[in-house]
Amino acid sequence: EQISRELDPYARALGHRVASVYGGVGYGGQRRALDAGVELLVACPGRLEDLLQMGALTLADVTAVVIDEADRMADMGFLPAVRRLLRATATPRQVLLFSATLDGPVAALVDEFQDSPTVHEVGERGPDVTSARHLFWSVERTDRVGHVAEIVRATGSSVVFTRTRHGADRLAKQLGRLGVNAAPIHGGRSQSQRDRALADFTKGTASALVATDVAARGVHVDAVASVVHFDPPADAATYLHRSGRTARAGASGVVVSLVDPTVSKAVRSLQREVGLDDAIAAPDLALLDQSRPATGSPRPNRRRRRR
Questions:
Q1: Which residues contact 34 (CB under 8 A, 6 or more apart)?
Q2: For 186-204, how does the pLDDT look when each residue is reduced to its tens digit (9 = 90+)?
Q3: What are phi and psi of 194, to 5 degrees?
Q4: What pLDDT sits at residue 251?
Q5: Out of 24-28, 250-254, 270-274, 300-304, least confident range
Q6: What pLDDT was estimated at residue 126?
Q7: Which of 32, 38, 57, 260 is a good FRET partner for 128, with 20 to 30 A between their CA atoms?
């Protein structure tokens, strides 16, 4: 939905129409958009396959395909569907593939569907961990909720990551009881609920967005002051993707990991892999003073959308 909104003004300037199709909502509006004619379709694989089976559209004349977040597609098991969809498009076709990595299953996709591809690299080869300040606080599990509430009050807009959907819902309620307006967002909530949570967070009505890892790449909101790892990330890549929700577009930010003393050894291993040498220390709210963005609350990047 975000990508579709960004593309729409460009397409309109060229006399083209854009539509987006994804699960979690009814088929009616999406089918009507397809029936009206679409030159540019932004789609999630599952819903696109459903619509193909219904006969709502054909890909036989599609000559350009962009696969976004290919590595994440691989992690989530979507590549078989991507392969089926690619085979349904025209031949020859141009396939553009955007990915943080080009190895493993993604490399197999390159071999199968790209002919003598050219590789374009943007940014540094390694992730930039210096754009945000990284803090690792030693906190007992039972004390984590209170510390999250203090971080949100000190910094303002915060994205808090939990391991499970149930954990996200529970933490949002616990923060609410402490006077922090928090909105949960994860794959178990309906599309309308996710849209409302993101809108509340963008407007500043909710000062915390409590998310599972599905949001680590999917949520793009400027001026997020802090990211909190309530539950530890599964690996270094997840740490980086979560942490990248703050310190975006030249802004500063802080990343706080709440470390249960029993997992300190694993966290130090993750630090080495990421390239951080920060000590695991006692919580210190004074270190958060510089984290609040000058604008106060998160907002969509309207200037970029207009341009």
A1: 19, 21, 41, 51, 56, 57
A2: 988 888 898 899 999 999 9
A3: -65, -40
A4: 77
A5: 300-304
A6: 53
A7: 260
pLDDT digits (tens, 9 = 90+) for 89-142: 999 999 999 987 778 888 888 899 999 999 888 866 555 677 899 999 999 999
Q: How far is CA 103 from CA 106, 162, 191, 252, 306, in A?
A: 6, 28, 32, 31, 36
CA-based nearest residue to 163, from 235, 62, 224, 95: 235
Backbone angles phi, psi at 19, to 5 degrees: -140, 155
Q: Which residues, in sequence order, are CB contacts of 91 under 8 Å at separation 6+?
A: none
Tokens of 162: 């939990």
Using an 8 Å Cβ cutoff, are 270 and 236 in contact? yes
> What is the pLDDT confidence band of residue 281, given thresholds at 50, 70 and 90?
very high
Burial class (CB in 10 A: 0-12, 13-18, 19+), 207: buried
d(CA 84, CA 70): 15
What is the average pLDDT value for the chain, to the nearest integer? 88
User: Side chain identity at 71, as an amino acid letter?
Assistant: D
User: Do 60 and 86 meet the contact criterion of CB atoms below 8 Å apart?
Assistant: no
Helices (H) and strands (E) in the chain — how many of each? 13, 11
Burial of 87 (0-12, 13-18, 19+ CB in 10 A): exposed
